[in-house]
Amino acid sequence: MMKFSHLCSSQFVRSVTLGAATVLLIGCAAKNPGAREYPDYSTAFLGPNGEIVFGAGPRTNTKPTAPSQPRADVSWSWNDDGISGPPSITIDLSEQQAIFYKGGQEVGRAPCSTGREGYNTPTGNFSVIQKNADHISNLYGDYVNSAGEVVKANVGVNRDKRPPGSRFRGAPMPYFMRVTGAVGMHAGYLPGYAASHGCIRLPKGAAEVFFANAPHGTPVEIIH
Hints:
Blueprint (H helix, E strand, L loop, with lengths): L1 E5 L4 E8 L2 E8 L16 E2 L5 E2 L23 E2 L8 E6 L4 E6 L2 E7 L12 E4 L2 E15 L5 E7 L10 E14 L2 E5 L12 E3 L1 H10 L5 E5 L1
Parallel strand pairs: 7-16, 14-15
Antiparallel strand pairs: 1-2, 2-3, 4-5, 6-9, 7-8, 8-9, 10-16, 11-12, 11-13, 13-14
């Protein structure tokens, strides 16, 4: 069971219960002095040892698709103590928020980053039709050289020409839950605005909890 609560406008405490042990994680939701700063356009990718790296470089030949904005607050909430009932998820595109319900009662909320202009996330009523905790995209990722170094970042194989001598490396989409076509929810980088190719990016911890609590067939409503 995981609980989250704000202590003030900037500080939060999260308690994670694992068996009989409870761990308190205390941090700053508005500003984390120890956090590394990453380019707004970077996303999750595979590191040299096959590990998933979130928002790290090197990234080259990228152009931001939105004006520079304040970095997103990636704090998220979850508390389903004593709450049961069928799960459902609402994605609010205008607010860039993902809300998880059980029995119609909100138990979780997280910021998200949805499709940018030209790759708009579709609205409507959908459901979770596929789940894969280790999903790798076959459409979006990077072109890399023989040493695995990024030659051209954040590409679409159907849109961006592959530079000579490079190969495509798909972007990891951990805790992927497909809702329609190529669109799904997954862990990824949140720059503070709609920036994806149509998918719904969530903070890594929230994506993991949503994934664990949303079986196949969970209703997903995407609204403006």
